Amino acid sequence: MGAELADLELPRTVVRRDSGSWALQNALERRGLGPVVGVDEAGRGACAGPLVVAACSLPHRDPGRFAGLTDSKLLTARARQWWFERIVTLATGYCIVSVEPEEVDELGVQTANLEGMRRAVAGLRAHPGYVLTDGFEAGGLAAPSVAVRKGDRVAACVAAASVLAKVSRDRMMVALHSRLPAYDFAGHKGYSTSVHQRALREHGPSAYHRWSYSNVLEAANAHGMCSPRGKRARRGSFDAFDQDVMDNGDADVGHP
Predict the structure, then answer these.
(1) Which string of DSSP letters, residue by residue, matches 139-175?
(2) Distance between CA atoms of residues 194 and 251, nearest Å
(3) Residue 97 CA from chain centroid, whole number
């Protein structure tokens, strides 16, 4: 077994985009390292609402049923809804967890993201043989893992996780909009758009905002508001305009 793992050298494997979205999963399955689970999150760059993380494993014997599945950011809202229903019906296992704003503020977004990944993997009914994460390494997953660059575009199980996380979070933000319509959460889903920024300047942040984000803290200070987190929040420690974590991009891929 040790020799086989040494031969794989998975953490140093370069995954090519043109090798197909099932290449890595199939290679792992052939080595007896299944089920292979993909993990991804939605809402890391948002300054309001939860961070949602999903873990998902797909049946690898008939990849044609998932032809066209890709990064949720590249799908239209209609296509994401279609894929969400298909994934929850056909997946061999999935788990979706929500990390609330209070915990994001207390832990910091990076640590909260990793914690969400651990919870999502731990919540699967079947213990994974291997975990694929999108872009960065995650320790403590209770299974071997490898970070795959642009994983939600080159690994179908990671793309599936991205859809589950994105659609679930969007639904949460629409529900939150009905409670706090002044912020238009249904429209921007908690991201720092111009509409959201105007609402923050006019009303100040709510308890559902992330008070560790610099733009939220700036709006709170302008209104003389104190953080509802007390001393637990990491004040202004994260920049909501960091383009590396904006995961609510425009979609250009339609219904399959």
Answers:
(1) ---SS-EEEETTHHHH-HHHHHHHHHHHHHHHHHHHH
(2) 19
(3) 10
DSSP state at residue 255: -
Provide the β-strand partners of residue 56. Answer: 38, 94
Tokens, residue 51: 């961070």
CA distance 102 to 210: 7
Tokens of 240: 């909501």
Note the pTM of the prediction, 2 decimals.
0.85
Residues 43 and 50: beta-carbon distance below 8 Å: yes
Are β-strands 36-42 and 51-57 bridged in parallel, bridged antiparallel, or unpaired? antiparallel
Q: Per the structure block, which two tokens stand in for 116?
A: 């969400």
In terms of residues, how long is the chain? 256
Amino acid found at 223: H
99-155 pLDDT per residue, tens: 999 999 999 999 999 999 999 999 999 999 999 988 777 778 888 888 887 767 778
- Residue 251 to residues 62, 76, 209, 247, Cα–Cα distance (Å): 27, 5, 25, 11
Tokens of 88: 């929850």
